[in-house]
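Question:
When you can, review this sequence-structure pair and walk me through the tokens.
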Amino acid sequence: MFVADRSHLIDASGIRKVFDLAASLEDPVDLSIGQPCHEVADAVKESAVRAIRAGKNRYTPTQGSPALVEALTARMAETVGLDGRKLLVTSGSGGGLFLAFATLVNPGDEVLMADPYFVVYKHAVAFFGGKPVPVDTYPDFRLTAARIEPLLTKRSKIIIVGSPANPTGVVSTPSELEEIAALAAEHRLLVISDEIYASLSYEGSAASIAPMHDNTLLLSGFSKSHAVTGWRIGYAFGPEPIINEMAKLQQYSFVCAPAPAQAAILENLDLDNSAETEGYRRKRDLVCKGIGGTYEFTKPGGAFYIFPKTPWGSDIEFVEEAIRRNLLIIPGSVFSERHTHFRISYSADDETLRRGIEILNGLAHR
């Protein structure tokens, strides 16, 4: 009776149901977790330990430690450009998303996003009174200007671009991004570019829309590139008025990102994760080959997810049967308006992946 109405706009029931069903399993084959399976590099760990021992345990400025802000800004200057832009260190890229929607979304504002979408997009937009507008990208999961344009209205305000994408692993091409940038400029729309998986791209560097469109808010971080998902270090880079308002909100919410983690990341900004990326490419190929003759899917070009079509039943029915067979996967409707697919995370050891492939191939022929 005391809960605010807006809390009911966020529905976590899909994922909650999966883990409720899985609670009694012993040694499940877990292909559900969306975080790196490789360990944090020793150098990164030691940097954090040194920072703690050196007393870097107090608040930093809300905007981030000056040294980290300076270093990240210099990096953005090289890749995006600084004209009218500013940087804010956030409590993970998720914290950046929350601050962005809180800053930008008025009641009734329409926010366009690819369907399938990262689960936070839809629910956070609705939480702040906006209207999520899913852009159907089936069957190839490519977000294009041609698919976006018919859905634009006078209330359209933001286009979210996630590349490489969660849950599909699709990486946008430069030409796709250029066309979206031109459409956004024509209709005076802001673009939020979620680039948290940019370091996990298998066919060269993932292109960014930020240099193509001045009114882009770029969100990224180090959870995936450095495997420090629990450290909550991200950043937002975009038009200075937006960043200033996000910083003001951060002061009254997250306060600042964790100080020892900021110091450790500063010392390891140029960490080489090419070996880890190559490892995920190999895991992708292992899973694609393993289920390729049985399931329909788009081969991912980045991140560590595959989004296959269920060979029978709804996504919920299929996932429930998978769990009965000791396999944890996520129903696609957690990320989509459709009930036809499911998400696999191949961020797991090879033995777990092989067990999962065996179960999936048996499950297809119910």
Remarks:
- The two ends are 44 Å apart (CA to CA).
- The first strand starts at residue 29 and ends at 30.
